[in-house]
Design goal:
single chain, alpha/beta, FAD/NAD(P)-binding domain, 28% helix, eight-stranded mixed sheet, globular
Length: 417
């Protein structure tokens, strides 16, 4: 069923009884050409682009829970292309372009709101670094506007500009930066993949990966064995666990990243604001809730919940940046499992096993990468060659030390993220 204003009108006249399920709920077949492990945003987008761009139909997406129950529904919904280093900047620029046409492409409203992302700076040195980043963004074909203190105050009058520790000097505006409805992204890709013949198998946990003579032959699941010619692993924070089933040890640590939402409020925050010194970021949802988050919990975990010390740090950062937030009530918090690489950049590559592919290591940036990741991973699986925007995301860079992309200046060490 194609969605349109006419369809909404006619269904309203008939009591909304004619809507069809958004996707099927099939039983797994004994064999597929391609099995994608992971039914999150990256896995669903991979399946969608495999079917749409490469004409492949005999595909299954295996999800141990329900579609959209992992990180794709547990984030702060920020979309941006404000990266600096070659290798990353091209990829996120490509992903942003896909975002901008996504609702039309999927015939599903992902509620992309290009309200602009503003990154604050607090010293002359930070300003100079942001000038370089902004110029790199513009050279890449994206947009950037440097705001001085006066210009920023006109846009964000509610910030504390004279904080003793972190006085605000200005900010870098990325006008095309956006937010999107995280559930809508998952549902849109799931619906689009299903329409093209992809089987979405929910409540189907992979328990083993079958390898014979150095070649993948299928997977073992809680719903039986499934044979496959190719298998793609794209399971975010569970990447290390699933890769271990194939005898691989990934350069990945999994950490909890918490997010929070307040009660619904009148419109107050028009942009996404990033406060780097406090590692705090905030926007306001269409329902009025303030959506915000902070830094990692800094202990390895597979739990989708956070700890109280990090909650306290996030609230302190919020009060430091904008004291007015102290009157808002926090409704709920949640945690996503971040798959952290040493250099803060992802992996999209073949593995040492023929027919087995890996897409992981998205660190803090998995949501904004959903379209680009799916497009690049689908291209790799279908053709055997890396997508032109993802050539730097090689797995062996951590073994050889060549091609490390230290985007955040963390010294290529997990513990400095």
């Amino acid at each position: 069923m194609r969605y349109s204003a006419l369809k909404v009108f006619t269904q309203g006249l008939t009591g909304n009884k004619g809507w069809r399920p958004v996707w099927r709920n099939p039983d797994p077949k004994p064999e597929y050409d391609i099995v994608i492990i992971g039914g999150g945003g990256h896995g669903l987008s991979t399946a969608y682009y495999l079917a749409k761009k490469h004409g492949l139909k005999n595909i299954a997406v295996l999800e141990k829970g329900y579609i959209g129950g992992g990180n794709v529904g547990r984030n702060t919904t920020i979309v941006r292309a404000n990266y600096f280093l070659p290798g990353n900047s091209e990829f996120y620029s490509h992903s942003m372009k896909l975002w901008e046409g996504l609702s039309q492409d999927l015939n599903f409203n992902v509620m992309l709101s290009q309200r602009g992302v503003i990154s604050l700076f607090h010293s002359d040195g930070q300003r100079d670094a942001f000038v370089r980043r902004g110029n790199a963004m513009i050279n890449q074909g994206d947009d950037a506007v440097l705001l001085d203190r006066d210009g920023l105050q006109k846009m964000l009058p509610y910030l504390d500009y004279d904080n003793g520790r972190f006085p605000i000097y200005g900010g870098l505006l990325h006008p095309r930066g956006a937010t999107a409805r995280h559930d809508g992204v998952a549902w849109g890709y799931a619906r689009g993949a299903d329409q093209r013949g992809v089987d979405l198998i929910q409540n189907c946990e992979v328990t083993g990966i079958d390898i014979v003579g150095g070649k993948v032959t299928g997977v073992q699941t809680t719903r039986g064995a499934i044979r496959a010619k190719k298998v793609g692993i794209v399971v975010a924070g569970r990447s290390g666990q699933v890769a271990e089933m194939a005898g691989m040890r990934l350069p990945i640590e999994s950490h909890v990243l918490q997010a929070f939402v307040s009660e619904g409020l009148k419109p107050a925050i028009d942009h996404v604001i990033s406060f780097g010194m406090g590692h705090f970021y905030i926007s306001q949802s269409d329902k009025g809730g303030l959506v915000f988050g902070g830094d990692l919990d800094f202990y390895a975990s597979y739990a989708q919940r956070g700890n109280l010390p990090r909650k306290e740090q996030v609230m302190e950062a919020a009060m430091t940046l904008m004291p007015m937030i102290g009157k808002a009530k926090v409704l709920r918090s949640w945690g996503g499992i971040m798959d952290m690489t040493p250099d803060g950049s992802p992996i999209i590559d073949k593995t040492g096993t023929d027919g087995l592919f890996i897409d992981c290591g998205w660190c803090y940036g998995g949501f904004k990468a959903v379209p680009g990741s799916g497009d690049a991973f689908a291209h790799l699986i279908a053709t055997g060659q890396p997508h032109e925007t993802a050539r730097g995301f090689r797995l062996d860079r951590f073994r050889t030390g060549q091609g490390i992309m230290d985007e955040e200046g963390t010294g290529s060490q997990h513990n400095l993220h």
